[in-house]
Fold these 4 entries.
Entry 1:
Amino acid sequence: MRYVLAATMDPAALAVLPRCFTPDIDLELSRSTAGMKSRLAARAHDIALVDMDILCGGTTTDYETIRQAVHGFRQQHPSVDLIVLARADAIRQAVDAVRAGAGNYLTYPLHPEEVRLVTQKLHESALVRSELDYLRDRLIQGRSGGDEGIVLDTRSPRMREVYDKIRLVAATRSTVLLTGETGTGKSLIARLIHSHSNRHGKRFISVHCGAIPEALVESELFGHEKGAFTGAIRKKPGRFEIAEGGTIFLDEIGTIGPSVQIKLLNVLQDRCFQRVGGETVIRPDVRVVAATNEDLSTLCAQGRFRRDLYYRLNVFPIDIPPLRERKEDILQLAEAFVRRCNPQRSRDIRAIHPDVIDAFMRYDWPGNVRELENIIERACILEGGEVLSPEAFPAEFRGLPHAVRNRALDISLPLEAARRHALDSFEREYLERALATSGGSIKGAAAIAGVTTRQIHKLMTRHSLKKEDFKPGSGRLKK
């Protein structure tokens, strides 16, 4: 971050802003829309802090006007990260601006620590986006389409770790084992590994081992000779031969039987196999990526999976986190699925209702990303307007935000005091739920909330909460 522009008519903000940045940051100040535009045209800025009235050309509460203003700014200055400045009584409009594409918002009066924190976080996010753009460009080469781009957009630290591992292993020949619950996107990750490797110009062959009858798995993988068994009327090459020079993805690897396990072990160990009923030794040049939603080490202990095969598969393990542990990605994924559904279903859906988003964040997503995709597709079919409303979703989603809307409000308090009271209540309830879910673990609660353990300690002190009250067996009810 080198060049920052601040456009505001607030005298106090103009006085505070120079104290918000270190001397190496070149800060420019503007008091009008015309001044902002001329400065943006004269130099490429990294971040622009812009007053809502300057951005929109006057005071407004209309979402469409705000959306057009933000989109217009981003079209003219795509490389500039936008932070909107708003009055304390205009938070709703500031949130609308963020929904429309602004990076974040700040409210008056400005505080140096808050300005520094928000701008630094936005700058760090821009660096991550640049890194992901680079990765996406590399992965897209040789790809004919599909969903790979959807999983690349992430704000989740755990998913960023997954992408780091992809970058490390993709260019090698090492066998990769993908683990994770059903619906987390293991097949898409396998395609990313292939696309990012030097095999991207060759075939990617996907085999769902659990969907093939056990008696046919060996033939499907390794092929068979004519007459090898009843019905084998001609020679058939297996998937390993078809994938020559490329990647074979073995999904649900834990379902294969003992005989196939032995043959697969030979392929991984000796790099050769024979077709069923054949004698010719075939030496394939194939990269193996396997996936499972079961714990293979447990299967080994139960005698259902060969331990030596497990070790051969588990050369480079990558665990894909469930959606409930990466909720910061839910909105981006949902919007991506909406954009994909629009042309497929002849729809023009432009936004998702805030109550739906709130319900999404409260739901545990047992079906993970696949469940989210299916629910979005269903809602797009049912929705007749431009905003995905709660009525287009199953009853369990409509019920969640209802409780939020019906929260008791004390209108005897001034608006600002009532807002602080509501935020304090929400913060305490959220913290209690996080601590209850983590069993009183500070580190676990911090991971759920996406903050540091130090911040969790401060919040617990503020709300007079003790971790011992949330330990298993403490007698405290989980909310």
Entry 2:
Amino acid sequence: MNNFTYYTPTKVVFGKDSELQLASLLEEFHCKKVLLHYGGGSAKRSGLLPRIENILSEANIGYVSLGGVKPNPRLSLVYEGIDLCRKENVDFILAVGGGSVIDSAKAIGYGLANEGDVWDFYKKVRMPNACMPIGCILTIAAAGSEMSNSSVITNEDGWLKRGCNTDYCRLKFAIMNPELTYTLPEYQTASGCVDIIMHTMERYFNQAENMELTDGISEALMRTVMENAKILKKDPTNYNARAEVMWASSLSHNGLTGCGTDGGDWASHQLEHELGGMFDVAHGAGLSAIWGSFARYVYKDNLLRFAKFAVKVHKIAASGKDLTSLPEEELDALALAGIKAMENFYHSIDMPTSLHELGVDVTDAQIEELAEKCSFHQTRTIGIVKKLDKADMIEIYKAAR
């Protein structure tokens, strides 16, 4: 078991009509003017935006609005938000939406609280030392950004998708009403469920001597999301299923499922970030499209872990309770069966397991570019289960075609 620090300062207000507590939450921070930041899809379809505006007006809290956040949030809109907030003397940012809106809000918060170009923080030239206070009303259960320290932004100049992780950007509060996710399209719900599961899988697949408690939480979380994703495919307004998925979204990415590990692998995310940057695909769908090929490429480097995933998450029977006593041939068969079972689940909720199914038919030249960018021009490797260099990345992208 590794040493760890677990830090989750975000206040969570969860349940039906929880958005009605917005004014009292904002008053705790004595804010005078709020940036109301949103995408435009689910927030508008649910009628949520007008309700928020009424709440702010009745509480005599000023606000300005900036919509238009895209699924892979753009740096150009971040710059626009920074300029607007400075012009309007905004002192609090309220994100209304999912991970993309929250990530964009975090980037705006960094830009307001620090000198210089905010993109410097994402290309790792320097690190921020502050962030404007941020809260959210969650309308999409997926990224877990409402309780994480991460933000991912896409720069249209070169279509680079990069992240910045610091505790400065952690939200002051997250309002989470599962009813606000009822209007999500089926594809977006399914893609969000993949993202949630993958945040836990990235931490679960590692090379550490893991804590059984953390493993048990991770395994239960993955099973819970898989079960409820299938329910939501048939019954999208099932409150209990929406609530399970929404809470799993936060727990999957707030650090809990990584306690005691080495931090996890994250290669699938890095590989997908380049797909998102180049082809603007939904993040969860990109992850499901790449994961099987990644897993088959690396599984022998931690065979026992992949076998445990098959047994504990997918309930595939082993010949003995103690996996460490099984012959390598059986561990290998279990590992491959677990990978296949995961892909079968993705298909059961209409998620892709290849780039072609994702709607992306990549050329060799594009794969070369993807790997070149993912390796930061051959200056880094990715992954923990197996260290992957540019040549490895090329092979995984090819296998995923």
Entry 3:
Amino acid sequence: MSAAVWADTRVRAGAARGFDAPVVLRPRHDVSVAERLARSAAAPEGAAIATEDVAGWLAERARAHPFEVTRIPFDALEGWGFEEGTGNLVHRSGRFFTVEGLDVSPGGAAPGWQQPVIVQPEVGILGLLCREIDGVAHFLLQAKMEPGNVHLLQLSPTVQATHSNYTRVHRGGRVRYVEYFTDPGRGRVVTDALQSEHGSWFLRKANRNMVVEVHEDVEPHEDFRWLTLGQIHRLLRRDHLVNMDTRTVLSCLPFADPHTGALHRDAEVLSWITGRRAAHRLRSRRIPLAAVAGWHRSADRIEHSGGGHFQVAAVAVRAGNREVGRWSQPLFAPVGTGVTAFVLRRFDGVAHVLVRERPEGGHGAALEFGPTVQCTPRAHRPPPAFLDLVLGAAPERIRYDTEHSEEGGRFLAARTRCLIVEATGEEAPARPPAGFRWVTPGQLTTLVQHGHCLNVQARTLLACLNSLEEESS
């Protein structure tokens, strides 16, 4: 008996007696994923719908379903009310989310503040389904209505659902395609990371950002279409078309990094954010909404006494293609259009963007990396560093400039102007101010795989940056 046959006989005999079965080791990384993503990003058209026809398809889906969002007074909310004693805005079921108060203490000499905050202690799923069509990776996007969306209908991920949604707490219809993200084995996971939501408005809210690849033929519902990355990247340059949840999932895609050099080694970048988290003293605690200082409640809004920041409002919703056809709910309504921007510089030919440590009262981690600029200029006094640079940039320096909506399920008409602006060494030195650090897009792609390293604004800008061929190559 040969040695190989003898060894195989021993393995089979051991398995029969309950020992470990033979195993086959697999590569830790699938190098083909990055190659296939690059092919998809280079495909300006797909097999299912022409890029130029997407806006018309969205308009057709809007005509096919009744959509209506109306601001109402708080006492017209169905199932919602202000809790006796705390004044918290809660749903009678005890599920979904609550609007409570948040007390934030930065520590040291920095002043603290209080504000309303959304408390939703559950993890949702933001999932993109992927499959190859004619040899090119396509992603299944949905024409989804959210009450706070500008234009109501935008391109959302295949699945965009809270835990309450997909477990049908609301007793509505099932969430289409959710089984590909909840049932192991239905497809191959391309990426899966727990990411934060808006730390200024949510308290420790997170979602699983997932991309799952399937090889079976998945027939799209009429509200869904398969698109290549190249098509999605072109649509990212149009105002209020690709929603926030799609943008954050796109940022998690494991694109290949063509560059091996950077101003700072990856370990140094990780050490910087770890050290800043360890030293950070920001403390947040929940307080009753009725006890929040500097805010007052009227019949139809809760707003800051200075008139800035945001309001808490109430809306009634009618939507023909949602799991529940009509409902009412609170929404946060920002005052003014936000600005988020990456300042970009090239060092020895390699693009770098300037990130800033961003402590936010609602983040689970002490802080995350944010964009160079993240503010609402109307409410931010004094203006933050580099705001004048990005708003005053000459047209030839602007690499990206599009207005996007923030999460429409909780925020009403929350508009953000997203910018990527190339700067000179005089405007943005290699040794930036304290709290800032130069990193490459490839380093951001590595960081985002871990979760809770880039805030949602930085992830949107990373998705936009990856859509620009000259910056991502």
Entry 4:
Amino acid sequence: MHIHILGICGTFMGSMAVLAKELGHHVTGSDANVYPPMSTQLQAQGIELTQGYDPSQFDPVPDLVVIGNAMSRGNPAVEYVLNKGLPYVSGPQWLSDHVLQGRWVLAVAGTHGKTTTSSMLAWVLEHAGMSPGFLIGGVPQNFSVSARLGDTPFFVIEADEYDSAFFDKRSKFVHYRPRTAILNNLEFDHADIFPDLPAIERQFHHLVRTIPSEGLVIYPTTEPALQRVIDMGCWTPVQTTGAGGQWQVKLLSEDGSKFEVLFEGVAQGVVEWDMTGQHNVANALVTLAAARHVGVVPSMGIDALSAFKSVKRRMEKVADVNGITIYDDFAHHPTAIATTLDGLRKRVGDAPIIAIVEPRSNSMKLGAHRDGLPESVNDADQVVWYAPANLGWDLPGVAALCTVPSKVCDSIDGIIEFVKHQAKPGTHVVVMSNGGFGGLHGKLAEALK
């Protein structure tokens, strides 16, 4: 079957394309912005990409069009599909019908940490010899591909609360019907489609309603929004992590790189790894709980985590130039920015940290997170804010509220010039964006040489 995917370079759609190819379909696709890591992964898989949405891409006519949730009415390709009556479907629906049917689905939902936690869980199952399938919204470095079908009934999926398509406004995750569900955390996000936090909580409860009574729901005790979701009604056994939960940790190093795991008060072993930050310790706990549900004993899960290599673009060290270290990080929410910088600060001590932040997500562009931004960068020594031309709120005003030195730049070149003068050997530069950021990482590394 010839499947054509509109919006193929999104992390979800790109991963779905890999699975469709593995199932033996002829897969093509298009996107407005074709950029790595997804574009390089797709090309390596032999998937033909078209830049833009000109209807000429439907020659020859595909058997099925999968429409990504970034596509809206008025898009020339979408209008062509509707006018010609071509068969179309949303990505989550296609996945549910053709990949997840009849499998033991382990879903990872939450505002933060979905990609990292899904990657951890897939790796723990792989390490235990369970050869799971997975679909992850990033490229886990233990696998070097973001999706595969796997050889067993187990399938790990990053379960996003964002909507499915312009014709299906339900959250993607209601299509997945997991047996094991991790609810990682819950804060307000996606201001372009949700009016407030209670609206997101309702979607999470739709997910909870689909989990069988023989399944398992795992969530941290520290998240009041998740407790409210569970209190709306839960028909499934639960396990909790963190303070007062069944799964707890004893930190053995302040930066989170070494900790002991306890289950129901009994020590299970020590994780020693390259990751930092309390958020990753929390991710590890829910991972071990989910893995245990499918038969991986905690001691084996702990061994696997000690060999975990994280995900591309999650505090990924991309360059070391004249003693200056550059990291690429996907953080695009104040909480994620703060926890990432906190983990780095605890690891590097007093070494200078420069944070470069692009407010690129839809919620950022709408200004939904601006009140939390000044405090989110407290662990940096210097922050550079990138002001794109279409930002509809006062970024300099937010920068002025920062307690650390703050600069606003309206060009990539301006950022590079500034960092060149600021950074000295021993400096750590963290570039935070959920997009390609105009290739800033590579250009900065070049300029620092």
